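Hi L., both proteins are below.
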Amino acid sequence: MAEAAKKEGLIVRAKKGLKATKSEMKKVVWPTKTQLINNTGIVIAAIVIFGIILAVLDIAFTQLAGLILSIG
């Protein structure tokens, strides 16, 4: 059986792969428009919050490094 699979051509394997992909895509449960909008909003809010936190930390560490270097 393994030998037969090895002898299959590229086209045959590609067709089988596409058929399997199509079969799996039919099983996917897609989100509703409302869920998609809500989830997108949550992701954007999280990105903004983390961006602000990183900016504040960057400014704080830059000031701290400036203080340390000015002392020495």
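That was the first. Here is the second:
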Amino acid sequence: MLAVVWSLFVGALRWLVAHPWVPVALLLAAAAAGVVWAHRRRETARRDRVRERGLRYALPQIDALHHRQFEEAVRDLMRRDGCPGAVRVGGAGDNGADVKATDPFGRLWVIQCKHRRAGLAGSAVGTPDLHVLNGTGRPVHKGDVVVLVTNGRFTSNAVAFARSQELHLVDRQLLAQWAAGSTPLWRLLGVVPSPRRPASGS
């Protein structure tokens, strides 16, 4: 068996020596393919940046989304706001976090999303959802800013609980302002923890 392999190897070497242009052609083809791949990747990244800078959602669009698409929309809005590493982590075993993002100030945002197909007419988000988020947002995910976003509304008990635990709520009205405008969420919320590090240019 080894003799056969060695024979094939020697034969291949002799063939390459007799045809020296073949490896050169293969290297040139590989280099060209690499250049094309890198160009396409840059173009895709550029298009994504352009789309994210101009990303807008109207409430009817948001209401029509599937809950997973809603999480993706929140992720994309965070990217638009200057969090290029924002990711959707929602799903089984997400421990209360649907989106995680690090803002330009170095703060980690842990966001839970609650989509209501009926919008404002849907069931209000209550304290049980906030209990889960409060129990994992900082202890498990190490979040600096812990937020619950809904296209619906919150119960009065949920609002009081969030205030007592320094959780941030984004209801339908605030979501509409955020999604349709260009102001980052941290400015709309007004009160967020101090930056972990200075913002660039500050």
